Amino acid sequence: MGIISRKVGIGGAGLALVLGMGACAQPAAVSAESPERATARVNGLLGIRPSGACEVTVKLIPSCGAWWGIAPEIFTGRRPGRALERAEGRMGRPADIMHVYHRGPELFPTPEERKIARDPAGRRLLLINWKPSSDRTWAEIAGGALDQRIDRLADYVLKSFPERFFLTVHHEPENDVREAPGSGMTAEDYSAMFRHVVLRLRQRGVRNAVTVMTYMGAPNWAAEPWFERLYPGDDVVDWVAMDPYADDRVQTFDGLVNKTREEFAGWPGFYRWMQSRFPGKPIMIAEWGVFERRGRPGFKESFFASVREEMRRYPQIKALVYFDSPRAPRGDTRFDTTPGGLRTFSDLARDPYLRATPVPEQ
Fold it and tell me: What is the C-alpha separation between 64 and 361, in angstroms, rounded?
């Protein structure tokens, strides 16, 4: 396609500049470069130096392969510990990452979550998804309206959980943006809110939160003129993430992480965009799911097989966290609704690429 001429994503000219050096014409993820060479190149950009063992950086980046995680049995009413136990039993291995959700004044990690992280049978990393408020605007939060809440949380973390954990603040902000003047919910307001929350936590002493900026991973939102202005800044973002789901137009893992649409012809796909926009940041698939397809009972089986076949082509993806739910907003994403789906998902979960680096003690 060459240089992008349509104004999308990061503001037209900016996107053309970032992606104009062949990123759209030849997707780096499927180039002739071998997976081994691509991994070595990406690890160099991420600051991972070659050594004889698989290690974890201070920002929780695995030097080998990628983390395997899950948000288990969401919308079932089961307690996190029991849901995780059941999910791990079904997929045949422990998770590296447990994805949990919190809102408003809730304090985290909870005692149950701390127990999950510290399980002597196998430690896990927590991915904590926090929406600070449902009734305050981003501008109000950035202006200090919830500082007391943030400080209380910081004090709780300092006293109860010294281990490193992933923290994403108000994930998937795109569909909450309101560009009307004074709305308090513009893209700039989101960026300011994210910065304020992270910097205030750090000022109160919370240095073990590895921060994640989580996008929806949908081309229609990336085409908005304000899209690039959501990003809070490299100094407060350690990982970048997307939450793509396999809708009716997605057939394989390649299509999931690099969704394109004819109606947004200039958009190169999220992985390609992230490669170009954030070459020094690890990428997390913080939520992904495969919906049931009427008339195609074998679709989940074929899709999970494609993930296993194609994931090594995307070495900047350092974590995959599945969203397992019988009642996700657009369908059933349980991985074991068919025998074939369960088998291929379990094969994927046990792939050596996703078991290469041990979860650290701290």
Answer: 17
> Which bin fits 144, alpha (ψ -120 to 50), beta or left (φ > 0)?
left
**How many secondary structure helices (H) and strands (E) does the chain include?**
12, 9
What is the DSSP code (8-state) at residue 48? P
User: For residue 298, how far is the Cα from the chain centroid?
Assistant: 26
- Cβ–Cβ < 8 Å for 65, 348: no
Statement: the pTM of the whole predicted model exceeds 0.85? yes
**What are the pLDDT tens digits along the chain (362 aa)?**
322 223 333 333 334 333 333 333 334 445 567 888 888 899 999 998 877 789 999 999 999 999 999 999 999 999 999 999 999 999 999 999 999 999 999 999 999 999 999 999 999 999 999 999 999 999 999 999 999 999 999 999 999 999 999 999 999 999 999 999 899 999 999 999 999 999 999 999 999 999 999 999 999 999 999 999 999 999 999 999 999 999 888 999 999 999 999 899 889 999 999 999 999 999 999 999 999 888 888 999 999 999 999 999 999 999 999 999 999 888 899 999 999 999 999 999 999 999 999 999 87
Phi, psi of 285 (to 5 degrees): -90, 90
Interacting residues of 295 by C-beta distance below 8 A, sequence separation 6+: none
Residue 258 Cα to chain centre, angstroms = 14
Determine phi and psi for 208, rounding to 5 degrees. Answer: -100, 5
- Which position has the token pair 């001429």? 5
Identity of the residue numbered 267? W
Q: Report yes or no: 66 and 320 within 8 Å, Cβ to Cβ.
A: yes
Measuring CA to CA, which residue among 321, 304, 323 is closest to residue 97?
321
Strand positions, DSSP E, 107-233: 125-131, 165-169, 209-215
Q: Are 257 and 269 in contact (CB under 8 A)?
A: yes
